[in-house]
Records
---
Amino acid sequence: MSDHDVAAIEAAVADLRKQVSDLHAQLPDNGLVMWTGGNVSGRVPGHDLFVIKPSGVMYPDLAPENMIVCDLDGNAIPGTLGSDRSPSSDTAAHAYVYRTMPHVGGVVHTHSPYATAWAARNEEIPCVITGMADEFGGPIPVGPFAIIGDDSIGRGIVATLDGHRSRAVLMANHGVFTIGKDAKDAVKAAVMCEDVARTVHIAKQGGELVPIPQDKIDALFNRYQNVYGQKPQGGMA
Amino acid sequence: MSDHDVAAIEAAVADLRKQVSDLHAQLPDNGLVMWTGGNVSGRVPGHDLFVIKPSGVMYPDLAPENMIVCDLDGNAIPGTLGSDRSPSSDTAAHAYVYRTMPHVGGVVHTHSPYATAWAARNEEIPCVITGMADEFGGPIPVGPFAIIGDDSIGRGIVATLDGHRSRAVLMANHGVFTIGKDAKDAVKAAVMCEDVARTVHIAKQGGELVPIPQDKIDALFNRYQNVYGQKPQGGMA
Amino acid sequence: MSDHDVAAIEAAVADLRKQVSDLHAQLPDNGLVMWTGGNVSGRVPGHDLFVIKPSGVMYPDLAPENMIVCDLDGNAIPGTLGSDRSPSSDTAAHAYVYRTMPHVGGVVHTHSPYATAWAARNEEIPCVITGMADEFGGPIPVGPFAIIGDDSIGRGIVATLDGHRSRAVLMANHGVFTIGKDAKDAVKAAVMCEDVARTVHIAKQGGELVPIPQDKIDALFNRYQNVYGQKPQGGMA
Amino acid sequence: MSDHDVAAIEAAVADLRKQVSDLHAQLPDNGLVMWTGGNVSGRVPGHDLFVIKPSGVMYPDLAPENMIVCDLDGNAIPGTLGSDRSPSSDTAAHAYVYRTMPHVGGVVHTHSPYATAWAARNEEIPCVITGMADEFGGPIPVGPFAIIGDDSIGRGIVATLDGHRSRAVLMANHGVFTIGKDAKDAVKAAVMCEDVARTVHIAKQGGELVPIPQDKIDALFNRYQNVYGQKPQGGMA
């Protein structure tokens, strides 16, 4: 790749490098990750590229300049900043999502403890609190068991979330993947997924859960996607 | 509204803007909220107004000048600072409480995890620890299932708390609302509600709870409302 | 009291004011207290006095000069710094312990969540981990149900801990009191009490606990009281 | 020992003193220890020496110059910095590991709450999440009950971990020991051990765990030991 092309890419990704790097701080701050686990990526607007965390780097050492720019096959773009390092070992899964879900602008992966506990039982999280209806529109589903090494994790994420209200999937015996309209939206989904995973776990430990009628779940989800916040935001539905 | 009227309101709310903004920090610091969830409001002494958090703003971005001044129907006062934003999506519930409970000076709403877990089972928190008798005078009650969009949440809060010793209500499948003589007192109630929700949950997981005799609960509550702290404070009873 | 006497007392308590004030930070830092709950006191060496936290003051506002100097009946010494405020509402219990247990140099009270959960079931914490044998020499016992207002809490603490290896007692349906050779030692006992209350609770939730043979508990306790740390320290046994 | 020898040792351990001291901060930061509990050590490359924490010192007071240099019998080297203090009371166990496992470069000991809860039931942690297969290659095993005072803890650690994929052992009714190629690797194992102990505990509380097929565990472990991170790292297999 020519120096000219690299410079054009760096210009296009400069803001996103900082956004993605900064958003990583939300993962340890919200108790979603330990050590070097977890990763956030964001699609580069107008390019077939995304920005993702390097593999095996401690959180305090993350910085805009060591985020890695990848094409939609998950290959680092030679010559760009950080391309001397390996991207996150989950890059193939992120890449598969960006290739096949054009409306997705951000992807997050964590092994957050309560959500991963549901995943270890291959059990969806039932929608028994209104905040979960707002954010996810129903239960958080379980995706297939798949291991790293090919496209099987990416395929499982897409097969589960495509057409689903939820922006979060519990990959069986593994952890959480979330999608969003941008990286921040996907991080929000990861934070709220762990929050509801914890609350519903605690609730279930104490006795019988009371379900919310489906029409109320629908009403809450529709309202939240349209009117919450300072301008329309939320999921991608 | 004239510039003169706006200036008079801003003069009346200046201290309260800072109090309410600062008190919001207690919510994440005490583990009561995630992301932009939760809200605190305070009544403006001597005016039919209250100050509340804007909708969908991250906690570190809250500041006195973006708190929103509302009338008792929950409408932002045109021309006041922050009135270009939407107030919290829970503003209607806060407004209903201020309209119908004139002794209430502060309202807080959270989805704090342990309290919301009890709410997901529509189960009141039994009063089995003396600190809970001090603070709440008995069990923390469950309010009706109600969804956002009209006065039904506000009506449920008032119907449950009016005449009740508790300053906290677990709204079914939703979360916690607390009231207080001022915003700080309502925040204290929200913090203590989560504390007892957690302790009693843990206790119940381990076996049989030992009840406290009603006359002891009464004695503890009456003492705490009258003699604790540097001067009389506590609930509004 | 003469200005001269007050000055002599202030000279005697200057270091202790700072120690007791600083030690209070350990309570929120270790998750033992919420809001203004919890209190630490320390005996003034060579005087029938102790220093304790004021009532109802937020943790960040505690400082050496607002700690309160009390006699062994729990009365603030007129003219000393901070004596315009009320001492902690638990002062009578601290005073009773200092009056009747001359070897005690520090007392701590908290409603730390896991320990208070055991207290809500009036259930002692069994000694199933070696760190608990080291620190407490066996189970952490339950004291009687007693409410604030007279000496009954203090009597219950002393009746339970006098001659017991444990420096911590779970007061029934209330919370934890710990004693120590000085204020720091009592704070350590409060921190370790919550730690073992949590670990043993989690262990018990998962299945059958494996007991430690009594002779091993004895050996661990005896060794720890004599050889751990840079010089002999630990409990008062 | 001559001043010359001491100077040579100090030159050899200078970097390691800082590494081991700094790594201790990971223990409280990750919720693995309370008060003065827990310890990290690292082998001095090319010498029959290791560096370890002093006994009974608070975490904020740890510094490179108070770390203690010991020979492989666990005796502090006279004349070296910090040798006027006692090394960690767990030094004998660390020394035994270094003597008998020459490929081990770091050892960590904690009483982290979830892992110690499994230890209190003498129950291994089953491998039901892929991140655990990556890091530990299967279940985290239980070692024998052994108490401090001779080599029995060290012998139990080595007997359990020698030839095992796991770098962590749950010593019965006691806590966790981890080993690594260096001190940082052992700290990582301690952090991840607590993480999986917590997640699997929570999962088990909620119902039936779904096992991962053995061939998938094998594939995950082999890949992670060889390709994760910026260069080959991970366990010592």
Note: Helices of chain C lie at 3-24, 26-29, 91-100, 113-120, 130-136, 152-161, 183-205, 214-227.
---
Amino acid sequence: MATASPKVITPVEEARRFMVDCLKAVGMPEGNAVIIADNLLEADKRGLFSHGMNRLERYINDLKQGSADGSATPVVAQESTSAVVVDGRNAMGSIVGTFCMDLAVKKAKETGIAIAVAFNSNHFGISGIYAKQAIKQGCLGLIFTNTSPIMVPTRAKQPALGTNPLAMGAPGNGDEFVLDIATTAVAIGKIEYYKRKNEKLPEGWALNEEGEVETDPEIALKSGRLMPLGGTELNSGYKGFGLGMLVEILSGLLPGSNYGLLIPKWGASTEIRNLGHCFIAIDPMHFVPGFQDRMTDLMEMMRNLEPIDPERPVLVPGDVERENEERVRKEGGICYIQNQHDTNAKLAQELGVQPMGSIAARPLIDDCKCKEKKKK
Amino acid sequence: MATASPKVITPVEEARRFMVDCLKAVGMPEGNAVIIADNLLEADKRGLFSHGMNRLERYINDLKQGSADGSATPVVAQESTSAVVVDGRNAMGSIVGTFCMDLAVKKAKETGIAIAVAFNSNHFGISGIYAKQAIKQGCLGLIFTNTSPIMVPTRAKQPALGTNPLAMGAPGNGDEFVLDIATTAVAIGKIEYYKRKNEKLPEGWALNEEGEVETDPEIALKSGRLMPLGGTELNSGYKGFGLGMLVEILSGLLPGSNYGLLIPKWGASTEIRNLGHCFIAIDPMHFVPGFQDRMTDLMEMMRNLEPIDPERPVLVPGDVERENEERVRKEGGICYIQNQHDTNAKLAQELGVQPMGSIAARPLIDDCKCKEKKKK
């Protein structure tokens, strides 16, 4: 019988060390490995575990198969005053993403707004990290990326667009707005969670192979058909589909990467995926003074609205993730689930790197949400 | 008893003449009046009647009360290489919008991407018209505007953001993508339509004054509380709320116009509304060649997907509106509902302008959707 055991915390530095070692073991230069590890850590710190260390194994597979090039660095293929096209050269997505947002911010500081689009790229992790990259430079950032088909367009039977996330970051005064959403109603991870809970799905999340709304999570997972934000056509799902196309146009069509049905499934083959991204930076210094004050004011205006349930205050995009970051700081590290520790142990052995160490949680912590099962 | 009568069609030229005459009668210069009339006509031609001539009476009220200035023209308040801030000088929104998109396109042709934001503006009609303005110049256009509070943020009890629409246009080959959506689940007009049909609302459209999901259209209309795209928090309504904030940030915070709760209700007072807009233009000539081909290919890829119901093919944003435009061309004019003709007759009398003339529909037409009641 599994009983609760003391919480296990992995210091951020140790999680980074482990990921960097794994990536180096499959031939990635240290500089690139640190960028990838920091990208995945950022997701874990923000509580978005599905996009954090959870992805390390997949990244390592891509590198081993040669479907992504761990040593590659992107280059500028075409350049205008406020626009850049970047050839990702099949580098890891986060290397391409960081490079592009940096270029967009530099140009936006000169001209007010700038855009960098990339082709020949790979999965770039959470979009929010690039939003934060822009915020750190005092800019607004808009981020778009295409992904392999999983969203079923309104009225269609089959998936033809990806989860196609869009993100926006904007700086306030000691505060920030970070929106990072898939244009599907939910991500696959949420359906997996309902399966674990053995609960029916709400209507509007997924379809079965006949194109009917499906509430059985097991059937939904097998069919692999997510509905666009909004759900059914009656509930304006065509708007979510439209937003998915908007993302595809900016991230896939402008840079001339693969798009829609042309994008191969991730991990299914050694085929190069040729994903596209789009990064737009806007420097508020080129607009009416006081942007950051207004940003803070708008966020406070929303947070201070009377909530329906006094226990559940109104949150603005980024608030939940910031609370998670705060917990990681207080607890001195990240609380990974046992499943992640098991995967890491296997990776460490396979790659011949030092296993990831952890510490027992400090006595002050009582709100760590992750349940660790007793090791036998 | 009302029985079906022959369909009544108003030639586009006559509808324009009538609107221009009405606007001139309240002191608007002819040049401005033509821009406003064309904006409203564009909505009617695309079948978006709520945003067409239906708005003329409200515009005339604004002008009579002096809450908007029919003679004003906007000016550039601040300018950078790829960014402009426009002072709308309380002009009619469509005058400001047309001016801004024109500036954004001109700059984008030079630099790849450009942004024009406006403060001190008014309601600007359908966003799609500015998307089409960009398309005509071979550019992509992104359009954002704030509006008076009517959307209830997730978990809140009261409205704090407007319907905050976003639009995007992109040129294909003899084809175009025009997305134009409110970030609320639906617009108020749809709830009015359900009231007329005497049908319950689907869950996820509106709230009552207690903040509960409301399915009675009458109560929903009285409460004036729309839910964000997605609906409830469980169905990802927080994404729609986040998109509403994204629109508010770009259109309200960058230009320093009113925002959120600061925006007065439309028509409720003579108070100046000081709305804000944001227009982004992107010139595909600064990116990888062949954008228009890829755009057409992506749209065809979607339209050719196997539909769940063979009678209901997959549509891309803009297809329905283009079909409506086609019908107007075939029928030689616009088929307004009797209610609109009644309002026009009243306006003509009040303003002393020649009433709007109409013609009986040509015999070839049998698919005009609007039902005309027999005049007594």
Note: The longest helix of chain A spans residues 93-111.
---
Amino acid sequence: MSANSGKHHVVIIGSGFGGLFAAKELGNKDVEVTLISKTSHHLFQPLLYQVATGILSEGDIAPTTRDIVQRQRNVRVILGDVTDIDVESRAVHSESLNQHTVTHYDSLIVAAGAGQSYFGNNHFSRFAPGMKSIDDALELRGRIFGSFELAETSTDPDQRRRLLTFVVVGAGPTGVEMAGQIAELAQRTLADEFRQIDPGEAHVILVDAAPKVLPSFGDRLSVKAQRSLEKQGVEVQLDAMVTDVDQYGIQVKDPDGSHRTIETMTKVWAAGVAASPLGAMLAEQTGSEVDRAGRLHVEDDLTVPGHPEIFVVGDMVNLKGYPGVAQLAIQGGRYAGRAIVRRLEGKEEQGAFRYRDKGSMATISKYSAVASIGRINFTGFLAWLAWLAVHLMAMVGFKNRISTLLNWIITFVGDNRNERVSTFQQVFARTAMQDLGPSAYPDLSDRADDDDEESERNAS
Amino acid sequence: MSANSGKHHVVIIGSGFGGLFAAKELGNKDVEVTLISKTSHHLFQPLLYQVATGILSEGDIAPTTRDIVQRQRNVRVILGDVTDIDVESRAVHSESLNQHTVTHYDSLIVAAGAGQSYFGNNHFSRFAPGMKSIDDALELRGRIFGSFELAETSTDPDQRRRLLTFVVVGAGPTGVEMAGQIAELAQRTLADEFRQIDPGEAHVILVDAAPKVLPSFGDRLSVKAQRSLEKQGVEVQLDAMVTDVDQYGIQVKDPDGSHRTIETMTKVWAAGVAASPLGAMLAEQTGSEVDRAGRLHVEDDLTVPGHPEIFVVGDMVNLKGYPGVAQLAIQGGRYAGRAIVRRLEGKEEQGAFRYRDKGSMATISKYSAVASIGRINFTGFLAWLAWLAVHLMAMVGFKNRISTLLNWIITFVGDNRNERVSTFQQVFARTAMQDLGPSAYPDLSDRADDDDEESERNAS
């Protein structure tokens, strides 16, 4: 498939922030655009943890991509998993079910993002789902709420304790927000709903191999965030390296070299990311390089060395130490779109890409957040209001904003959660991999070996 | 597990309309109540088709049962699939994961509802999901929206036509509403979103072995409903018996005895119901009888013959030809709860159970419905408004009403749908059973045999 009109054809891979903002920049310009994505929705990833904890519906944070760009008449959206990029013949191969599609491009914008990384221990993923997709979030929703359900009927105190222990691995923004929300739902939302267990006794543990939480926010906010989490009842375990994960628990290694086991049915993996393998595929064909996280070293105009027709944006990029955040993808997508239009119009190049840091923020609990915007750090209620406003504005689509706002009122004012449904698939089919386990649980540390530890060293 | 307090212990099986209204009736009375259900939510089934077609989130129609009854302090909710009712020792056995729970009762209310029936052809279910659970609705959501996605990239005209043909089997309220909504979303919601296909060309077919749609609404409304569907572009095929279903199509037998094949990737089964097998289990132990749909013949006070301590309500009941609708379950659940309280208080029995018909209604399209309330039949916009009001009022929980109302405004005023997300599981894992099929498709009628036809004869 190529441009029908004979116009310059831009192919975009990915419907995340990078791909979507590139498409919007190119919308109704004198080019033809094909956006290829393996999901039919644009995912607003910063709020994924709220789907996992029953605050928002998946529709609230994942509007359909073709709905968003329907007025950009020159943009075509197709569903497909990209299996190959042929740099020589300028073609992208993609698949959906048994359909194979070949799309030729004049310019290419690769914005395929990053997935969860288990640092070489992919067998962890079965027991500790990541936080990267709607599937992940719904799976975790089933496991979190399901654990309370199963604890209510459990008659074995060890089993019950294991069901009411929740471990989040990784103390970046996603992990911090997730741990805070699990504590919040246990203590507030579920407070009066059970008769045998007290959900408030749930034990929420945040584990990281690094010495502090939210390291990118700076020392002051880091300390504040940790205190705020602890006040909420979250146990923060730092300098604690995860060396194994199985059905019934995780094993961590403390700084003194000793191993211990935390028994827990529900594990959340928010520790590391790995860029899409399309980066390595491009590197191989063009002689460029990827870093250990799979991110491609690009020119300062976001193009692949020697290939000015290929832009790479967002989480797939290794450039000047820019962080893997939504704003990098948004700004990169816009930049790439503009660059292509300027070239076609014969205008001079816009100069090197420069990431503008718009700050970072994370909510810890209801009415409390930490925010770092430029040199200004703030915390507490004011930061929480700022967080609210920024996220509402950043969402795509008026209707999603209204629906999200409504669900926030239900949760923050009413202590309720409207979106707690799990399918059988989520509660049983997948969780069934985990039976509830014996009372006498063998210590995981018996199985520790140094190879596992090595691979975890990159976790923080 | 039995009542801790020594109080009279009522066990309720099921969290549908019957079980929930029984629990509310018994709430804060001088009894102990245990509600056992295989889902953690109460499902508002009349709007399930709106989850399948992207209007509502699953949370909107499935509030958590223990959330609803949290102020009824004497009601305990446990998750479990009932595997056995032991009438002799008055015990209910249930399971969740590998936990086995035995609950003893003084009184028992069985409100386990009905599942989809394929009339002996359970292999149809793989290709034509039913409309009974949240899992069903999300699976169908994935298949419906996924078919348009796959059609957009298909280059084979036969395959594309098959992807854009949607067949709904069963012309009762669920089937009629489902067919209407698929037509509506194809023609309005998706109108400007595709570039290769015209979603408005989607072919929606409603098939039933009976000679009319909505037979329980009476002749006049039946004709009106059919005309209204046809005006919307739904093809109504009556007197057409489904004799086989496979990946790529369904086979129907017309009144003249000839067979034909409708090629279609997306099939919805809304044709028949079968009562929970717990009915047959009770019948076997008590010497009572079930009808062909598995419904138990009960006394006129809804008790099992010879067992005044066991009430059966809702879809599991065969009594005086009462229809299997939500109101029968609601009224039955309340009646059973009241009967138990009156007995304990030593008051005289309340007399035979009498079902009060509160009417029936079905929406055909935006701004158009049919309603039959007592002797009054009405159609069109007024019926649609009545439908809106009745359904909003019948929903459980204020927050679900607000959220549903918002989603209705988005859909009915804006022609948008906020809840179109499918997980990979739904789009791929299950649909992957269906590859997209060959162009030259073997006629299903070659495989027809009389046994299949016989079993379908009960469909209407």
Note: The domain at 122-271 of chain A is CATH 3.50.50.100 (FAD/NAD(P)-binding domain).
---
Amino acid sequence: MSVSSINARNQFRGKVKALILGPVVSEVEIETPAGIVTSVITTRSVHDLGLEIGTDVLAFVKATEVSVAKL
Amino acid sequence: MSVSSINARNQFRGKVKALILGPVVSEVEIETPAGIVTSVITTRSVHDLGLEIGTDVLAFVKATEVSVAKL
Amino acid sequence: MSVSSINARNQFRGKVKALILGPVVSEVEIETPAGIVTSVITTRSVHDLGLEIGTDVLAFVKATEVSVAKL
Amino acid sequence: MSVSSINARNQFRGKVKALILGPVVSEVEIETPAGIVTSVITTRSVHDLGLEIGTDVLAFVKATEVSVAKL
Amino acid sequence: MSVSSINARNQFRGKVKALILGPVVSEVEIETPAGIVTSVITTRSVHDLGLEIGTDVLAFVKATEVSVAKL
Amino acid sequence: MSVSSINARNQFRGKVKALILGPVVSEVEIETPAGIVTSVITTRSVHDLGLEIGTDVLAFVKATEVSVAKL
């Protein structure tokens, strides 16, 4: 199913740069113009999405999940 | 209390660009080299951190909160 | 930007049934075959997505966000 | 400790249909009238709750964790 | 519906000490032996749960939502 | 990079009491005056932060991630 737009305000286009596959969850490293974005998703989702090194993806995060620290 | 480092893999340095203050939560727009990052935090935290337009901040997100979509 | 698939394992198609708009975040009630699903997103996202009563949407949740209780 | 009600607006009753146990976290597949709901929790919680195939459970999600996409 | 146990590893019993009600979400301050715990939930959940100053509650958090910083 | 303060309203100082290392994510048990707080973070973050038994850490949680149940 294709979707036309997502509510998440924070969206980063990029390419899968590395995958660390675990038995339940996996780490996906995504190279974006903003630098490396790291995501942990289920290993089943990695397979369902057909993620491989070089796959074009969108990493996104809800604004309620973003923390802020003062420097 | 000062902390030396945070576990969150996804960290974006930037400056507060806009603030929308609500009665309970507020939206913080942060200008980073990666583009605009938007965070929703409690309005009390906005005041406790002393956030204003131009404040230097670090936006960060746990890898478990990052979703991935295939383009 | 259109995306072809999302990693979130928990996806519910439905129609917007009600909207409670706040100054920063809004509540979106979505009628799905699974019953009512409720989401809180930024009010700006409600406007950007053009959500109205009756809009066709997909509600989705990462598996790491789902809690389990024993009955 | 028994609780009488939970704040989460999104609650789905069901039965554990499958368990994928990992060293730290596990995937719990829950069959509900709404379809399969998937949760990732710590493997210690799986053991503490005594989850097995067929256990009656409640899967629940805070509204702030639900994302919305437009179809 | 009563539940007998929840997967969340981090549970804090306490009493509601303060409520800041907003149009969509509200802040609940809970006094626990561990100090004040603050939660943001939908205002509808505040009403559905019948929360008032002094109500006995359980605040809980999934382990995947807890961040760690080094001092 | 050192930060001076974090928005998270819920902060617990403590010492690492136990570590369960997995291939992708690890469980960190932290002994605090409030009792044991459990966090799941990426194993790479465990290494980057140099976490060991006895390390002084701060566990913290955004208010939007805290659920409330009525007893």
Note: The helical segments of chain D are 43-49.
